[in-house]
UniProtKB/TrEMBL annotation:
InterPro entries: Alkylbase_DNA_Glycosylase/TA, DNA_glycosylase. GO terms for biological process: base-excision repair, AP site formation; DNA alkylation repair. The keyword DNA damage applies. Residues 1-33 are annotated as: Disordered. Keywords: DNA damage, DNA repair. This is 3-methyladenine DNA glycosylase/8-oxoguanine DNA glycosylase. One of its GO terms (cellular component) is cytoplasm.
Length: 322
């Protein structure tokens, strides 16, 4: 492997526990530079996500409900290799999927920069790879929670619901939980959704998805566009939600998000200085990156060139207090 691991931003302090020597483990050598923080951070839903943790010792923890059951995964960089330990019934599944999770199937070199800013961002972030979890529901549900609300509200709802209805993660995990299974999601009472600040529309969409969870998980084996089409058959799931999902579940390099409140303005401002760009203008600007538009958008976001704020943030309306 050429290069070394890129340093990830230091996470907030959290309790780190020693790894059990008997835990199933795996070492893997990435095919190129790899920044664990850049690859895995899109899976985190806020700094207090109960399914994800980055600890001061440089480890990244995440939990999943795999086809074989719940599991916990701890990932660290060891020289030019990655070392992972796993716990729970889903441990073997998580270790088998480690390379895909860390972007082994991704090809960063497929993007040819057409703008100086993109070229500079690509050069500064050689460890960026697109994750592929191979799991759909664990990404779809928090994405539905993010529909039409502030990220803080969505993160709070995710945190409350997972802690209340999920289960403690297996292994020496630093206070982590595994998200509920599909049946448990379908049994969440209406007042619990209300208490978490989730309106009836989003709650109903999650319930519809939970009822066909098996069919949705099958889409992990489909091309991203086919997976998106199946997801959008569910009322309440549109292009924004399906795209945000396959970006993570499938590692889809061309799945650019449309319908986002901020992304068009950020892309327009970064590439042309036009902070008023809409989805059409954004897609025109990203057209030279066909096949790699999601990667191009991520590099633009990582460049840090964003328009100065001129409007108030979306107002928070907590339905639990209405």
């Amino acid at each position: 492997m050429s290069g070394r691991f890129q340093p990830a931003p230091r996470p907030a302090p959290a309790a780190a526990r020693p790894v059990q020597p008997s835990a199933p483990a795996r070492r893997w050598t990435p095919p190129g530079p790899l920044d664990l923080g850049l690859v895995l951070t899109p899976l985190r839903r806020g700094p207090a996500d109960p399914t994800y943790r980055a600890t001061p010792d440089g480890a990244f923890w995440r939990t999943s409900r795999t086809p074989e059951g719940p599991g916990s995964l701890r990932i660290t960089a060891v020289g030019d290799q990655v070392e992972a330990h796993a716990w729970g019934p889903g441990a073997a599944w998580l270790l088998d999927g480690l390379p895909a999770l860390l972007g082994a199937d991704d090809d960063p070199g497929a993007l040819v920069p057409r703008h100086r800013l993109v070229a500079l961002s690509q050069r500064r972030r050689p460890g960026l790879r697109l994750t592929r979890t191979g799991l759909v529901l664990e990404t779809l549900i928090p994405t539905i929670l993010e529909q039409k609300v502030t990220t803080d509200e969505a993160y709070r709802a995710w945190r409350l619901l997972v802690r209340r209805h999920g289960e403690a993660a297996p292994g020496p995990t630093p206070g982590l939980f595994v998200l509920p299974d599909a049946r448990t999601w379908s049994l969440v009472p209406s007042w619990e959704w209300h208490r978490a600040g989730v309106d009836d529309k989003r709650a109903a969409t999650i319930l519809r998805a939970a009822r066909v969870a098996h069919r949705l998980e099958e889409t992990a084996g489909l091309p991203p566009e086919q997976a998106r089409a199946r997801l959008e058959l569910i009322p309440g799931i549109g292009p924004w939600t399906s795209t945000e999902t396959v970006q993570r579940s499938h590692g889809a390099p061309d799945a650019v998000t449309v319908g986002d409140l901020h992304l068009p303005g950020i892309v327009g401002y970064a590439l042309t200085g036009n902070r008023d760009a809409d989805d059409t203008a954004m897609l025109d600007l990203l057209a030279p990156y066909a096949g790699q538009r999601h990667r191009a958008a991520r590099l633009i976001l990582l460049s840090g060139r964003v328009p100065p704020r001129r409007t108030p943030k979306m107002p928070r309306v907590h339905i639990g207090r209405l």
